[in-house]
Amino acid sequence: MDKTIFVELLMQHHYKAVRSILDVMNEVDIASLLSELDDKELALAFRLIAKDKAAEVFANMNNSMQSYLVEMFTEKELRELLDDLYMDDTVDILEELPANLVTRILDTVSQSERNMINLLLNYPDDSAGSIMTTEYVGLRQSMTVEESMAHIKRTGIHKETIYTCYVTDKRKLIGIVTAKELMTSDDKIPIKDLMETEIISVNTHTDKEEVAELFRKYDLLALPVLDAEGLMVGIVTFDDAMDVMVEEATEDITKMAAMSPSEQTYFDTSVLNHAKHRITWLLVLMFSATITGTIITRYENAFAAIPLLVSFIPMLMDTGGNCGSQSSTLIIRGIALNEIQFRDIFRVMFKEFRVSIVVGIALALANGVRILIMYHDVSLALVIGLSLAVTIVISKLIGCVLPLLAKKINLDPAIMAAPLITTMVDTCSILVYFNIATRVFAL
């Protein structure tokens, strides 16, 4: 939908046309369209969204839009919105809103809802409890298929998902049954004959990354969450697991680029915050690079005797850094997908060593031939070739080992990515280069 046309209809008070446009749009697309409006237009347009869509649109808005609308809502509008929001979405919104708006929302909801919100807010940020919803379909094993379907019809509208139903006995999870099984089974069959008793579940304090991994591994639509006593307290749905995957991927990308992660979008983050997230790592890497400079100054005599040696430093450092980055990227991915464990460290090192030998020989030969053609100097070709081969071996071993060591000591492997590894490899490549050069040329 073109923003200009939409705003023009809105400003000319063609509310019927605006409402008809919003009625046929997807909730996510509506939230995206409204994000381009100014505050006055946003409040007006939101009030024209159909009631059955408004809560989902609100849940897909960014924090600044949500904060503004909560401030603008009347008590009646806020109450209606919260009634339609799923509990996990309400909690997610409250975690990002200013304290005064959180208080206003909590004053609007019932005591039972407030107790549930407070319970969910008290779970650790990285736990399954923090992303679960308490709105699931619960069945009893004594029910028949017919009774279960009637129960779903009565209560399903208020549940986040009805595709998987949970069979409980005094809140103890004893089985699951899918909507497909209910719809394709005889009405008189009891639930206890249909339910699956081999259940994949998590604890409220299970790390949410582990939860997301279970969704990926088993292709789940929902995952039951149990408390410390083994009683069912909620479920994590696929959309929340996807949010975790996106969040973790974003965090890893920022760390791999030597930046502190931010929960805000690029445009919502101020210039000062952008700088703050980047400057710390840049300072660390900048001062780390002075080690390389110190090493280079120790070989001033080599530069004086053969000035041409200096021209090959950037190529050696860049090649070493690139090789280390390739290895670290593959290992970090393998760790993230649980394909590689710390116990595999020697297998990984052996594999990367063999890869580095092949790559090193290929690049060394290519550079050796180039140097012979350009400079007709066998000794120089030998120095550069040997330096390249050794540097590539070292950089690939560093690139594969550091992420595994980080994982072992409970650090995020993503911090051992390109910038940090490049800085370390630069130092190693300079040491290798000048040690080989001084021995070959006997400087």
TrEMBL record:
<feature type="transmembrane region" description="Helical">
    <location>
        <begin position="353"/>
        <end position="373"/>
    </location>
</feature>
<protein>
    <recommendedName>
        <fullName>Magnesium transporter MgtE</fullName>
    </recommendedName>
</protein>
<comment type="function">
    <text>Acts as a magnesium transporter.</text>
</comment>
<comment type="subunit">
    <text>Homodimer.</text>
</comment>
<dbReference type="InterPro" id="IPR006667">
    <property type="entry name" value="SLC41_membr_dom"/>
</dbReference>
<dbReference type="InterPro" id="IPR006669">
    <property type="entry name" value="MgtE_transporter"/>
</dbReference>
<keyword id="KW-0479">Metal-binding</keyword>
<dbReference type="InterPro" id="IPR006668">
    <property type="entry name" value="Mg_transptr_MgtE_intracell_dom"/>
</dbReference>
<feature type="domain" description="CBS">
    <location>
        <begin position="195"/>
        <end position="251"/>
    </location>
</feature>
<feature type="transmembrane region" description="Helical">
    <location>
        <begin position="379"/>
        <end position="405"/>
    </location>
</feature>
<keyword id="KW-0813">Transport</keyword>
<keyword id="KW-0129">CBS domain</keyword>
<dbReference type="InterPro" id="IPR000644">
    <property type="entry name" value="CBS_dom"/>
</dbReference>
<keyword id="KW-1003">Cell membrane</keyword>
<keyword id="KW-0812">Transmembrane</keyword>
<feature type="transmembrane region" description="Helical">
    <location>
        <begin position="417"/>
        <end position="436"/>
    </location>
</feature>
<dbReference type="Pfam" id="PF00571">
    <property type="entry name" value="CBS"/>
</dbReference>
<keyword id="KW-1133">Transmembrane helix</keyword>
<dbReference type="Pfam" id="PF01769">
    <property type="entry name" value="MgtE"/>
</dbReference>
<keyword id="KW-0460">Magnesium</keyword>
<keyword id="KW-0472">Membrane</keyword>
<comment type="similarity">
    <text>Belongs to the SLC41A transporter family.</text>
</comment>
<dbReference type="Pfam" id="PF03448">
    <property type="entry name" value="MgtE_N"/>
</dbReference>
